[in-house]
Design goal:
Layout: E1 2-4, E2 7-12, H1 24-32, E3 34-43, H2 51-66, E4 69-70, E5 73-82, E6 94-101, H3 104-112, H4 125-135, E7 145-152, H5 163-172, E8 175-183, H6 194-203, E9 208-212, H7 226-237, H8 256-262, H9 267-273, E10 283-285, E11 296-297, H10 298-317, H11 324-332, H12 343-357, E12 361-362, H13 365-368
Parallel strand pairs: 3-5, 3-7, 7-8, 8-9
Antiparallel strand pairs: 1-2, 2-10, 4-12, 5-6, 10-11
Helix pairs in contact: 2-12, 4-5, 7-10, 9-10
Length: 369
């Protein structure tokens, strides 16, 4: 059974759908993609209260920007949390919240499912680094770009795990560690801590940044308020007829990468990608929650949903000014681009620098035409 906009549909599949057939263009994209693994290792103690909200609020903006490179990054994201007493002392107060995955909804859910309660905890940076470096499912592809964003504050030499030894392990595995030191207010004194954070970054090929976790500003422009976009999102979600898991992030749904994933999971997307496919053998059976009487041709149902989705999508896209990702890409390349201690700007600029350094090319406006 699948839930969509309050209705339950039971789908009986009477023929085999070729799940893994792709168009020549899609296959070329897959073959040209290059692995990029990024782990966010987050200090979740009271001194960084607001960090989780900051990461999860801005995650999708940053993901949308990552597609602005060639070869196409085959991006996976993972989350490690540390400095919460509930993670237990035997682990060094460290917990893998989400292993590396390209299912960004899983990443998002791991952040939203995390308790927002602020706990006092031991900030054992060495233990957090050890878990990140040795226990995550890092790519074994020799061309993979592997990045850690160690985000938090405090002294780096606390606990039984030597942070310098972990730096050596990171270098052996070609893992770059960027450190982001969190200041809660402009009056915070970081002088006693920052030397260690700089050492971790420089010894692993990364950079050290500062941020204020409660300081936010829009990175991308829209012409609609959140309530309007939320209403359109619900309407768009209602056009999905899943035969697998269902994702729900709005703008990301318009990317080629998302469509390539969804055509294996959502019949309406499949029909969009392969319009000549006949679905007459599939039936939507009626039940008490479905007002349609009698067996209904799935062909008609899917075509109606596809038409409705295209109409909604066209409306939604008018609220996102054209070329926003390209605008941001152009701005972050400028030498005087102001990070303004904003986390999303720090992440995008850091990724941009590492991408160029490691053989990626920025996608230009001409490439989009």
């Amino acid at each position: 059974m699948f839930h969509s906009s309050g209705k339950v549909f039971i789908i009986y599949i009477a023929f085999v759908v070729c799940f893994y057939s792709t168009s020549n263009a899609q296959q070329a994209t897959v073959e040209s993609a290059r692995p990029v693994d990024i782990v966010f290792t987050l200090d979740l103690s009271g001194s960084t209260n607001g960090l989780v909200d900051n990461i999860r609020d801005k995650m999708w903006d940053v993901i949308n920007q990552w597609k602005m490179f060639r070869p196409t990054p085959k991006l996976r994201i993972g989350i490690v949390g540390f400095s919460r007493m509930s993670f237990t002392g035997s682990s060094g107060y460290v917990k893998i919240l989400c292993d590396l995955t390209d299912d960004y909804d899983v990443v998002s859910n791991s952040l939203f499912n995390l308790s927002r309660s602020v706990e006092n905890g031991y900030q054992f940076i060495g233990a957090a680094m050890e878990t990140t470096i040795t226990s995550m499912d890092w790519s074994t592809n020799s061309s993979a770009l592997k990045i850690v964003y160690l985000i938090g504050n405090g002294k780096v030499n606390l606990g039984r795990i030597d942070f310098r030894k972990q730096c050596e392990e990171a270098v052996k595995k070609n893992i770059i560690i960027n450190t982001v030191y969190c200041n809660k207010t402009i009056k915070d004194n970081r002088a006693n801590d920052i030397t260690g954070w700089i050492e971790i970054a420089t010894s692993t090929g990364g950079e050290q940044y500062d941020t204020y976790v409660n300081k936010r500003a829009p990175l991308f422009n829209t012409k609609a308020n959140l309530a309007t976009l939320s209403a359109y999102k619900d309407s768009l979600n209602a056009t999905y007829l899943p035969y697998g898991k269902l994702c729900s992030r709005l703008k990301y749904k318009f990317s080629e990468e998302y469509r390539m994933k969804q055509f294996l999971l959502d019949i309406v997307t499949y029909k969009h990608e392969y319009p000549d496919t006949k679905l007459s053998a599939l039936k939507v059976n009626p039940n008490k929650e479905n007002p349609i009487s009698g067996n209904v041709s799935l062909e008609d149902y899917v075509n109606a949903n596809l038409k409705n989705r295209n109409k909604i999508s066209d409306t939604i896209m008018t609220y996102f000014p054209e070329g926003e990702e390209q605008r941001v890409q152009t701005e972050i390349a400028l030498p005087d681009y102001d990070l303004n201690n904003l986390l999303d700007r720090v992440l995008i600029v850091s990724y941009y620098k590492l991408a160029l350094k490691n053989g990626f090319k920025p996608l230009t406006g001409a490439d989009n035409n």
